[in-house]
Write a structure and sequence with these properties.
GO terms for molecular function: metal ion binding; protein serine/threonine phosphatase activity. With about 425 residues, the protein is α+β, with helices and mostly antiparallel strands. The protein has 9 helices and 16 strands. It starts with 11 loop residues before the first helix and ends with a strand.
Length: about 425
């Protein structure tokens, strides 16, 4: 089945109408990343064997790149307060300790995957500890922050002056299992997108997606598969361009809490537009074969304090967008509270990105457990339940799925 190509959509005017942005100082972007596979606790026992790792661990350029992405600091929606010794200040790193890092690597992102290409304008700050409660009357010393760079393989030194950072994610279509591993296509698509962005940092995401699609078609390591895609590049001057194909998506939340949320592209209920590689034996059998040109294009202008969120449908199927905005506001309020006056603006942006990504994954996974019967059936409904009802299906509650969230918070360059 082939869908009629959707019109190109320019979000710039929509976003400027709710919050005009003028040319301002150069920006950096703090990155937050969190992901969790559906085949991971609490939806399976901790003794359960993790699902496919795709290309991870393979001694190939693609395999090493997947390992590099998985080495980035990330959460899996398991925020908790760090234990502290008696007499110390009540500080928290959000539960991103060694155990969390091990769990993230063990369980992975399932059929979702992501790409980060640093064009030289990412904030360099290792996460500082934040205060979850008001500090004692004795202020204590400011927590020293540790600075670290992303792994050098994320950057292309010859092109760093272009200051074009790319973030992207993809959701592999599970219907190819068990004959084909759905995670291979999404990982390969992100790998080839990252290669295109590294070779040409100023490339428009829709052009990068075309190159990635063609490269996967020619990649002998991927026999078959399909995936959605959402990709953005973020420039030092605040200009941002994006493309979205399928039911992954993005949100832009301005510092005044006004927001723009993308709409899913679907052929019909629960069947998103998707890029595909079809093996010869299945061609001509009605398998969906969408093209990168069918993705929606977006252009926006970002300012300091604006938040860009990319997410797979594991989030958007389960969590209403108004909840996303409410959680973003709550995190902003926490970081601006008296308890966290010790944070610099750079530290605050970094913590906002990290915490928001992890809180959204946690909220999305919690919503997956909803039954639709909360509060006698009068509680809030998941977007998946609402859409199912519109299509004559009684599928109450949440939908257990892989979930991946990337957050970029803009901040004035110091």
């Amino acid at each position: 089945m082939r869908a009629t190509p959707l019109r190109t959509m320019r979000a710039t005017s929509l976003l400027r109408s709710i919050h005009p942005v003028t040319q301002g100082p150069a920006l950096t972007y703090a990155l937050g990343l969190s992901y969790a596979a559906k085949q991971s606790p609490p939806f399976v026992p901790s003794s359960y064997q993790p699902g496919s790792a795709g290309f991870a661990g393979q001694k190939t350029p693609l395999g090493r790149w997947v390992d590099l992405m998985k080495s980035l600091p990330a959460g899996r929606g398991e925020l908790r307060k760090t234990n502290v010794e008696e007499g110390q200040e009540d500080l928290s790193d959000g539960g991103w300790g060694i155990d969390t890092a091990w769990q993230v690597r063990k369980w992975g992102a399932g059929e979702d995957f992501f790409a980060v290409v640093d064009g030289g304008n990412f904030g360099r700050l290792q996460r500082p500890k934040i205060r979850l409660i008001s500090p004692p009357s004795r202020r204590g010393r400011r927590t020293p922050s540790r600075r670290t760079r992303f792994p050098p393989q994320l950057t292309n030194p010859a092109t760093r002056a272009d200051f074009q950072t790319h973030v992207a994610l993809s959701d592999g279509v599970g219907g190819w299992a068990p004959d084909y591993d759905p995670s291979l296509y999404s990982q390969a698509l992100m790998y080839h997108y990252a290669k295109a962005a590294q070779a040409q940092p100023s490339i428009a995401p829709w052009e990068g997606l075309k190159k990635a699609y063609a490269a996967v078609e020619a990649d002998k390591h991927v026999e078959a598969g399909s995936a959605t895609a959402c990709a953005w590049n973020l420039a030092e001057d605040g200009s941002a361009r994006g493309v979205n194909l399928g039911d992954s998506g993005f949100s832009v939340i301005r510092r005044d809490d006004s927001a723009f949320h993308s709409s899913p592209q679907t052929h019909y209920f629960n069947c998103p537009l998707q890029l595909s590689k079809i093996p010869p034996k299945l061609r001509g059998q009605g398998v969906i074969m969408d093209k990168p040109e069918m993705g929606e294009k977006f252009e926006v202008k970002l300012g300091s304090g604006d938040v860009m969120i990319l997410y797979s449908d594991g989030l958007s199927d389960n969590l209403p967008m108004e909840h996303v905005q409410q959680l973003n506001t709550a995190i902003g309020d926490l970081l601006r509270s008296e308890a966290n006056v010790h944070l610099t603006s750079e530290e605050r942006a970094h913590e906002h990105a990290r915490l928001l990504a992890d809180v959204l994954v946690a909220a999305g996974r919690n919503a997956m457990t909803r039954t639709g019967k909360e509060e006698g059936g009068k509680g809030w409904k998941t977007p998946f339940e609402i859409e199912a009802k519109k299509n004559g299906k009684n599928w109450p509650g949440g939908k257990i799925d892989d979930v991946c969230v990337l957050v970029a918070v803009a901040n004035n360059k110091i």
